Structure prediction request, 317 residues.
Amino acid sequence: MKYCSKCGKQLEDYVKFCNNCGAPVQTQNTPPVQNNYSSGGGEKDGNGKKTIILLAVALAVVVVVCAVVLIVFVMKNNSEDTVELTTANDVTTTQAPDLSADNARYNSLLQRYNKAKLKAAKKGVKVKKQKNAAKEALDQYKSAIDNNDTTLLSQYADDAEKYVSKLESAANKQKKPKTGTASASSQKVRSQYNVPESEKTNYKVAPNSSVGEYYFDDILDDDVDRYAATTLAINEYYARHGCQFQTPALQKYFEHQKWYTNLGKSTAAVALTGVEAHNAKRLQEDRQWYKKNMAGASGQASDFSYEDYMDIGRRVG
Prediction:
């Protein structure tokens, strides 16, 4: 016996079409119910596969979308970090300390340091200790400026100021003379004529007491001699204080006197005593009067030679 695969009707073996539904009759003898059950199971299997495929596709789409979102998120964060870093750098540059005032102060201190060092060298004053301390303080100050070390700038600036000031004070001091030697103001200048003691005289023509006008009128007869005598007497007051003279004839004359000591002083740096100043003034007035009565007199000490002065010395002193 066989059955209709469509409606399950039992059919005769020779029937090729179902008498009930008209469907073609299968040649197998499998019960229709079992055939229907087998066919239904195949449809379910196909639908399951489709579902699985759809789920896989959906999952793949989700994965792709998540990956795209993640990439966009990471790129956005990196971009924001770059902007923030650039901004931070800009802020740092903008807020850098202004060190122009410290640079100016350092340069000023350095100039003072160099001047004080040079001054001490010229005077022969020893300032090695103060110079080294000032140099070290200046180097520290410069290093703090170069490194933008604002925490130490103020301290190093004050230290540099202190030690440069100490160097300046030391450089301004006078060099002390060595023990057992005369001071600079009393050191004898070596004679340029090298006069032997045996050749020296001891002439003095300038009066030690107050005198009136025309003092040499009572001693010398000729106006030329009186003019030479007043010139010699006025300069003798300065020679007694150790002055050195620009006129060779005068200098040579005084270096031939035993009482003279050349201390290298200038006449402008010497203050005469009361009697000396009084007599020098009166002798100067006499000298002007004598000069008026002399032909060719220039009014200078060079009007006379060393021999002229020696002759006056012999006659008056």
